[in-house]
Design a protein that fits this description.
Rossmann fold; six-stranded parallel beta sheet; globular
């Protein structure tokens, strides 16, 4: 099964030598993804909403960084700054039947699926009002009511879980698909390959999305992975694969939409590599300038910042004005600040709650056998 690069500048391999089995036939010939069908469906209000979502994610992350520096947040804090178009673009083409699972850099996906800043910030603060009752922290956001299944701390550990969600969907004859996000480092973990094997063997509706930000912790891709692109690893399992730019929200939307359509209509898995970039370190404790330069970071910010690019695009389309963009930015800052105040005012969990939500049987003493029906219908 062959795939395609959607930008000849991404890698050295010429596009003409490859063919696509995932995307629309005209995609390799265009650099203006706004004219593709999935994006032509967007009205002005929807475009502004997508822009606002990216801005909200960035301002939330910046405020959480400040809270960490002030001592309000302990443990790990993995920021999504710079990668906003990937989560927002992907989630924007989901249907109500689709599901999302990711790793520890999960704040952007959480906000994109509709979790509110209060429950997310409170979770970072370890407060009882957090989405995981203050016990999960940065790496373990969950919202089952929004089909968002985390937030997982083990590198690559979410890949078999995403496979399981896709298996459940197919087994129960549900319409949806699962989007399983991961970083570039996760592609070197054994469970990823085991998952690809079964996804192909059983024909499961799963889309594996590699958010390749160039570094696995502090190790550049060129030093941790042999062979490129990473998405091509799906080829060994006869799985569709493709590579895309992650700073263009329109391109992300088209790529993910086509993979979801393939998953749901043909029950075929895909591996998509979205080339993106993180502005901060692996976590806030990571001295990232020991392995990359300030100039490298600034060059990306100046030329490929996803928020700036989408803002400029919407202004050129006559959808957005500088004044409106500034108002949206201020609203996002105010919302993030209010969420921090909410988190500060919220209580910590009681010591007596320490073992709650650890074992299902303990929390449900009158029902010792699970039927499995709560998987997609949990009210907890």
């Amino acid at each position: 099964m062959e795939g395609i690069y959607h930008d000849a500048d991404l890698k050295d391999s010429p596009v003409s030598e490859k063919k696509t089995v995932v995307d629309s036939p005209d995609i390799a010939q265009t650099s203006d993804f706004s004219n593709l069908p999935i994006n032509l469906q967007l009205d002005s209000e929807e475009k502004i909403r997508l822009y606002s979502q990216m801005v909200r994610i960035r301002r939330f992350e910046e405020r959480s960084l400040r809270a960490y520096q002030q001592g309000h947040i302990g443990g790990f804090l993995h920021l999504y700054i710079g990668q906003e178009a990937v989560a927002v673009g992907s989630v924007s083409v989901m249907s109500e039947d689709d599901h999302v699972i990711t790793a520890y850099r999960d704040h952007g996906h959480a906000l994109a699926v509709g979790m509110d800043m209060d429950e997310c910030m409170a979770e970072l603060f370890g407060k009882r009002t957090g989405c995981s009752k203050g016990k999960g922290g940065s790496m373990h956001f969950f919202a089952p009511d929004k089909n968002f299944w985390g937030g997982h701390g083990i590198v690559g550990g979410q890949t078999p879980l995403g496979l399981g969600i896709a298996y459940a969907l197919k087994h129960r004859k549900k319409k949806g698909a699962c989007m399983c996000f991961m970083g570039d480092g996760a592609t070197n973990q054994g469970p990823f390959y085991e998952s690809l094997n079964l996804a192909s063997l059983w024909g499961l509706p799963v889309v594996y999305i590699i958010e390749n930000n160039g570094y696995s912790m502090g190790t550049a891709e060129s030093r941790h992975s042999a062979g490129e692109p990473l998405a091509r690893r799906g080829e060994a399992f006869d799985i569709n694969w493709s590579v895309h730019q992650g700073h263009d929200l329109y391109e992300v939307r088209d790529a993910i939409n086509n993979a979801l359509v393939l998953a749901k209509e043909s029950s075929s898995p895909s591996v998509l590599e979205i080339v993106t970039y993180r502005y901060r370190g692996h976590s806030v404790a990571d001295p990232d300038q020991t392995y990359r330069s300030k100039e490298e970071i600034e060059e990306y910010k100046q030329n490929k910042d996803p928020i700036n690019l989408f803002r400029d695009k919407l202004i050129s389309e006559g959808v957005l004005s500088d004044e409106k963009a500034n108002l949206l930015d201020q609203a996002a800052k105010d919302e993030a600040e209010a969420s921090a105040e909410f988190a500060i005012a919220s209580p910590f969990p009681e010591v007596s709650e320490l073992m709650d939500d650890v074992y299902w049987e303990t929390d449900n003493p009158d029902q010792k056998v699970s039927s499995g029906e709560m998987f997609f219908e949990s009210s907890r």
